[in-house]
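Box 3.1 A note on notation
Throughout this textbook, protein chains are presented in two layers. The first layer is the amino acid sequence; the second is a C-alpha cell string describing backbone geometry. Keep the layers aligned when reading.
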Amino acid sequence: MSIMTTGASRVGYETKGYFRTPDAVFFTFLFPVVMLAIFATAFSSMGDITPGPGMEGVSFAEYYLPGLLAAGLLLSGVQNLAVDIAGEKGDGTLKRLGGTPLSPIAFFIGKMGQVFVTGVLQAALLLVVAAVFFGVGLPTEPEKWVTFAWVFVLGIATSALLGVALSSVPRSAKSATAVVIPIVLVLQFISGVYLQFYQLPEWMQNIASVFPLKWMAQGMRAVFLPEDFEVLEQTGTWDLGGVAIALLIWLVVGLVISRVTFRWIRRDA
C-alpha cells in the first residue's frame, strides 16, 4: 500500500516537473497540435482526400488527426521518458534516488502516471483544436469511443514501457536526444503520421508493421475516418484484432526489456 501511495504522489511530482520544462512541453505535448495546424492550413486548398471514386472524402485535417493522435502517444511515452530518464541517469538524479527508500516500482508508477496524464491532456487538446478550429467532425457512435479508449490505453502503456527500455541505450545525457529523436522521427514518417500510409512502398509498409506506431495509427484511423477508408489499409480492413495483438506484444517486450536493463546508475558509470 505504501508503494502505491508513494507512486501516486510521484505522479503529481513528475507531472509538475514535466510542465516546468518548456522544451519537453513543446516537443512532446504541443508538437502534434502544431503539426495538425500546419497540415490543415497548408493543404486546405487541395480539396478532400478520398479512398476512391464516388466514396466519401475527408479534409486533410480530418485525415491527419488519427496519425497525430498516435504520434502523440509515441512522443509522450517513448521520446519523453527515454530522454528524461537518460538525463536523470546522467545528472545523478537516479543515483541519489537509488540511495533512498524509494522503490523502483513507485518510481515507475510516477513516470507512467505522468505519461498517462499528459497523454490524456494532449489528446483532448488535439481533438478540441481539430473540432473547433478546423471543423473536424468527431465520432458520435459509442463503439468508436470504446475503440479509441482501448487503443489509447494500450498505446500509451506500450509507449511508456518502450521509453523506459530505450533510456538504457544513450551512453550519456548529452547524447540522449541525438539517439532517441531520429528513431521517433523515422517511425513517424514510415507509419502514416506525416505521409499517407497507403501511398508508401509496400516494403516500407512492411517495415512499419513491425513497430507499434503503425498499429496505433491504424487503430486511430478506424475511429476517426469513414468506413470507406479501410480499403486503403494493407489488408483492406481496419484489423483491430491485429492492432490489439501487435500492441500487446510490444507492451510485453517493453516490460521485459525495462525490467532487465533498468539500473539506478549505468553499469559502466
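The two ends are 33 Å apart (CA to CA). Residues 2-43+57-261 form one domain.
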